[in-house]
Amino acid sequence: MPSYDFDLFVIGGGSAGVRCARIAAGHGARVGIAESRFWGGTCVNVGCVPKKIMVQAAEYGQWAADAGAFGWDIENRGHDWSVLREARDREVARLNGIYRRLLEGNGARVFEAHARFLDAHTLQVGEERVTAERIVIAVGGRPIRPDLPGIDCVMISDDLFTLEKRPEKIIIVGGGYIGVEFAGLLHALGSEVVLTYRQRWPLRGFDQELREGLAEALTAQGIKINPGETITGFGAAGDGRIVELASGRVLEADAVLVAVGREPATQGLGLEEAGVAVDARGAVAVDEDHVTSVPHIYAIGDVTDRLNLTPMATAVGHALADTLFGGRPRRASYDNVPKAVFSSPPIGSVGLTEEEAAARGPTDIYLTRFTPMRHTISKREGRRSLMKVVVDAKTDRLLGIHMLGEDAPEILQGFAVAVVNGLTKAQLDATIGIHPTAAEEFVTLRSPARRAGDTQDEGGREEV
Ligand code: NDP
User: What GO biological process terms does the UniProt entry carry, in alphabetical order (predicted)?
Assistant: First the structure.
């Protein structure tokens, strides 16, 4: 048996890689991990964490503005971007340190360097050459820069976190997670926002009624939406930026954010030296156990482009470490993964959408729309909630639960347990509500709003 420097070497210190390395080291493996940019990866540094802090900043402004309706006399002299930026960056730096210390505390050897394959067991890590019996690729993804004229003069999501000042007017291209999240938060912080996307509705893949509800809510708040628009190019005009649309229109703003998805960050890794195969999108191809085309090399997280969400990446990294070194072979399930979009209002979602369920068979749809109590008083526009339960009409099993409305991500985390565990609508109904809350609606929806997916029924809704 050849002897290697490490039992496991992990390339990439993001959510997937750090979890895998930490747990493997905790199981007693000799682990090395390399990260060339920042510990914690996209989520901690240029994703979920700093974004959520900015969402919270936006909410404070709205609460301060609404507080008058509840009797508070608050003088709001505006938002100081630099204070937010400093607080956010401090928190990110704190988390960076925690990630690194967690690894070292578990006995992993940490390399702050770029790693690339020299062969299937050998890596060049900065100045050092190391060998490992098993190698995990966990290098994540990066924002796509579409091949369009002028693309270099616009921002991608990473740039949002280094902005010195908030743009007074911004055009956001892309109706996905990042597009709608930043449209809501920048608008609430005071920017004029134009959101442009190529579909008729934002958030393709989410329940159609939620997509429509979100588009309505964004418009009601004052965000200008341009659906069904294709971009042909970008340009600079003085200090400003322009976006050219296929319709011939030209939009102008102080800044443009392009958020049209992310791609696996496999460049410069030397995958070909190791014989690791990639698919057409450049994602590392893996089997159900996250094994690549080389049996002792694995890939986890966004670089596999399976389900690009942090909790999925950490779950997969943990399961792989337990499988390889913990004597506990297992797979993290990709079924019924709950999702949240921190839009304004936010979305929480688990399981099948109405459209997906209806395509499989008769489905009962339970639905409620209401103005949350807070906003019957504040009169704030664009805050109506929509809650939907998707039920298999034959078995009474819960297939999906979806919410657009305040606290939706918090509420859905708990209700996801019901869908993941195959509970029935009757079991939901047997749970007493917590009053007065919005969440109680999920256990008090007595009669279906409609039956979808029935051949007799014309009411099934179409994905647009
Ligand atoms: P998404 O995949 O969510 O959305 C991409 C958007 O860009 C879609 O509206 C898509 O339209 C559009 N698009 C794609 N290609 C083009 C193109 N060539 N021209 C014009 N529009 C285009 O990507 P994001 O960048 O918003 O986010 C990246 C990923 O990061 C997410 O998919 C998610 O995995 C993760 N993320 C998760 C968050 C969360 O969990 N809350 C928050 C932020 C990001 P179409 O629908 O037509 O393809």
Answer: cell redox homeostasis; cellular response to oxidative stress; glutathione metabolic process
